[in-house]
C-alpha cells in the first residue's frame, strides 16, 4: 500500500497548476511538470516541493477525481506517485487503464517520467511487464542496494550504493523488456530505467508527516508497533529527505537538459 498525507500540502482539484509565476520570474529553463496522484491523501512530498522550489510549473492531476491531463508532449516531465489501490485492480478502479494508457503515451513520446511505488508499477504495466503480489510485503525501513547499472545511473546513482529506504507496498513488478534494473531489496526489484523513464518501488518522496498519516490510517498493516516505526522514522527521515531531494533534482536536471 502506498498512501500519502495531505497535511503537508493543500488539497487540489483534479487538475491544478501551482507556481506559475515562478516559471517566468526565477529561471529561463523552467519546465511544465505533471504530478500524478491517486487519492485525497496522496501527494508528491519532497518531489513536488523540490520541483516548485526550482521554479518549475507544477500541474497536479488526481486521477480518480476525473478530468484529464494534456497530451504527454505538453509536459517536460511527469512524476507519478502512490495509492492504496494495486496496479491490476481495474475491476475496482476502472480509471487505472486510462492512466496506464496515458503512461504508454508518455513512454512512446519519450517524455521524462519517474514513478514511485504504485507509479513504478503502473509504468511497468504501461511498458508491458507483469505486475502482481510481491513475495513479501515491505512496510517500514528496508535495505535497498543499487546494481552496477544503478551506481552508474545519473538519477539512482545519487543514492548510496546501499541504503535504508522507506517502503509501504504489497505489490511488485517484473522489469520491463528492454529496461535495466537499477536497485533491489531482499524481497523484490526496487528500481528500473527504460529510456527516459525511471521506476522506483521505495518512497523517496515521503515526509515524516506523511508517514505519521499512513500509520494513523493503516496501522493495522504494520509488522511492528506504530511507535516503533515512528521512532525509527524520526531518526532516519532527515537524511532520507536529503536523498530524495537529490534524486528528484537529478531527474529534473536531466529533463530540463
Would you identify the regions where 5 or more consecutive residues have pLDDT less than 50? 1-12, 21-27
Global mean pLDDT: 90
Broad shape: globular
Strand order of the largest sheet: 1-3-2-4-5-10-9-8-6-7
Oligomer: single chain
What's the CATH H-level superfamily name?
Class I glutamine amidotransferase (GATase) domain
CATH topology: Rossmann fold
CATH class bucket: Alpha Beta
- The CATH architecture assignment turns out to be 3-Layer(aba) Sandwich
Count of individual beta strands:
10
Question: Helix-strand pattern, N to C?
Answer: EHEHEEHEHEHEEEEHH
Q: Describe the largest sheet.
A: 10 strands, mixed
Beta percentage is: 25-35%
Distance N to C terminus: 34 Å
Count of individual helical segments: 7
| Helix-strand category | alpha/beta
Q: How large is the radius of gyration?
A: 17 Å
Helix content: 25-40%
Provide the domain count: 1
Architecture overview:
It is a single chain. This protein has helices spanning 20-25, 45-53, 95-109, 118-126, 148-152, 208-218, 226-256; strands at 15-18, 32-37, 57-62, 77-80, 113-116, 131-146, 162-173, 180-184, 189-194, 197-200. The protein has 257 residues and is an alpha/beta fold. It has one domain (15-256): Rossmann fold, CATH 3.40.50.880. It has a 10-stranded mixed sheet with strand order 1-3-2-4-5-10-9-8-6-7, with helices on both faces. It is globular and about 45 Å long. Mean pLDDT is 90; it is low at 1-12 and 21-27.
Amino acid at each position: 500500500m502506498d498512501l500519502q498525507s495531505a497535511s503537508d500540502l493543500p488539497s487540489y482539484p483534479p487538475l491544478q497548476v501551482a507556481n506559475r509565476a515562478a516559471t517566468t520570474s526565477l529561471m529561463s529553463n523552467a519546465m511544465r511538470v505533471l504530478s500524478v496522484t491517486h487519492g485525497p491523501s496522496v501527494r508528491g512530498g519532497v518531489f513536488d516541493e523540490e520541483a516548485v522550489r526550482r521554479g518549475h510549473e507544477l500541474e497536479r492531476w488526481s486521477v480518480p477525481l476525473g478530468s484529464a491531463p494534456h497530451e504527454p508532449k505538453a509536459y517536460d516531465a511527469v512524476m507519478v506517485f502512490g495509492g492504496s489501490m494495486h496496479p491490476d485492480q481495474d475491476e475496482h478502479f476502472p480509471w487505472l487503464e486510462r492512466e496506464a494508457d496515458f503512461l504508454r503515451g508518455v513512454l512512446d513520446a519519450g517524455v521524462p517520467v519517474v514513478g514511485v511505488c504504485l507509479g513504478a508499477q503502473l509504468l511497468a504495466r504501461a511498458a508491458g511487464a507483469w505486475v502482481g503480489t510481491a513475495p513479501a510485503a515491505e512496510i517500514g525501513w528496508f535495505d535497498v542496494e543499487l546494481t552496477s547499472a544503478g551506481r552508474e545511473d545519473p538519477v539512482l546513482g545519487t543514492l548510496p550504493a546501499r541504503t535504508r529506504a522507506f517502503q509501504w507496498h504489497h505489490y511488485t513488478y517484473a522489469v520491463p523488456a528492454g529496461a535495466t534494473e537499477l536497485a533491489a531489496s531482499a524481497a523484490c526489484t526496487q528500481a528500473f530505467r527504460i529510456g527516459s523513464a525511471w521506476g522506483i518501488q521505495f518512497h523517496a518522496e515521503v515526509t515524516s508527516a506523511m508517514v505519521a498519516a499512513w500509520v494513523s490510517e493503516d496501522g493495522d498493516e504494520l509488522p511492528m508497533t506504530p511507535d516503533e516505526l515512528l521512532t525509527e522514522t524520526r531518526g532516519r527521515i532527515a537524511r532520507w529527505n536529503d536523498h530524495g531531494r537529490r534524486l528528484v533534482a537529478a531527474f529534473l536536471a536531466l529533463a530540463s537538459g
